């Protein structure tokens, strides 16, 4: 399992590198494996096809960025880190969402954004909020941060200072809203 | 011009009524005009085709609901009124967004949501906010309220009390965020 993950990541890295230069639809398995310096046939030990690989990268990266971090960093750090992550990987995620005909990735992504807001509420809401308001708060801000991440992808913002201001303004909006809900 | 608007609205009402029963793609101009009790040929005096009519309804209604109200009601009232409006017209807008292959309607809609947040800022921000933060605030909350309106369409919420709680929670989030940005 350990070595399988390492190999999968090697293949994934190869696809991500190739996507910097060309469109996903024009990338063949032969190319991916050549770039990874591996035998073409080995691809099928790990993935069914290109789409399967794309999906695996998406799920694995979001899991690493969001789920695996939940217990270790504050929600403010998580939001800033996600801004940096999407900025660094904008070429990949922008293309991925453009391919997303059935809004499958988008829905998956939005559910991760809800997880981020859930964490924010767990970190900070040391008081009772009624369930309806909590649900509205969660969806309201999850949609908003999803929009912010998509904006980072569109605008290809890479300036770290600008991204920090963005993340800080977002968490300020969140903090203010939570404080107002509390009253 | 006055009578032209009345006739256009009559034709529009006819399409909207028919869309309660069947899909847009299956509605013919003959049907629309029969329902409106008008001659089929008159349709072309006002609209090019079904799509043109659909677009006209969308633009005209949003203009009436948002732009025309900007000077007369508070942003809180505007948000509540929009919640009621989308709830009352969910059958129409839900189908319209489902037809929206190039996200044309969605983009137009989001720009109206930005207008609502702009009004909120004009109504309440009696202090200086730097341009970057103002822009982030605007996009953040515009995306969030757009998400809330789309949720109303999806869930077909019609309970007025629930919609009032929704609108109130949204404006509380907005107020809190603005207060926090101010500090």
Automatic annotation (TrEMBL), chains A, B:
Residues 28-47 bind DNA. Keywords: DNA-binding, Kinase, Transferase. The keyword DNA-binding applies. InterPro entries: Homeodomain-like_sf (IPR009057), HTH-type_Tx_Regulator (IPR050624), HTH_TetR (IPR001647), TetR_C_Firmicutes (IPR039532), Tscrpt_reg_DhaS (IPR012738). GO terms for molecular function: kinase activity. Residues 5-65 form the HTH tetR-type domain. NCBIfam families: DHAK_reg (TIGR02366). PANTHER family: ACREF/ENVCD OPERON REPRESSOR-RELATED, TETR-FAMILY TRANSCRIPTIONAL REGULATOR. This is Dihydroxyacetone kinase transcriptional activator DhaS. It comes from Pseudolactococcus carnosus. The gene is dhaS.
């Amino acid at each position: 399992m350990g070595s399988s993950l390492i190999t999968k990541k090697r293949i994934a890295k190869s696809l991500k590198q190739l996507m910097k230069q060309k469109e996903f639809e024009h990338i063949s398995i032969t190319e991916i494996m050549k770039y990874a310096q591996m035998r073409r046939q080995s691809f099928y030990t790990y993935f069914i096809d290109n789409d399967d690989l794309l999906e695996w990268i998406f799920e694995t990266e979001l899991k690493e960025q969001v789920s695996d971090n939940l217990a270790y960093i504050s929600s403010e750090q998580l939001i800033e880190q996600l801004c940096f992550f999407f900025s660094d990987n904008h070429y990949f995620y922008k293309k991925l969402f453009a391919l997303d005909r059935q809004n499958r990735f988008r829905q998956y992504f939005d559910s991760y954004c809800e997880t981020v807001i859930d964490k924010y509420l767990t970190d900070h809401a040391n008081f009772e909020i009624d369930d309806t308001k909590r649900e509205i708060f969660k969806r309201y801000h999850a949609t908003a941060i999803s929009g912010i991440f998509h904006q980072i992808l569109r605008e290809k913002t890479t300036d770290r200072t600008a991204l920090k201001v963005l993340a800080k303004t977002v968490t300020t909006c969140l903090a203010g809203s939570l404080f107002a809900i509390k009253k």
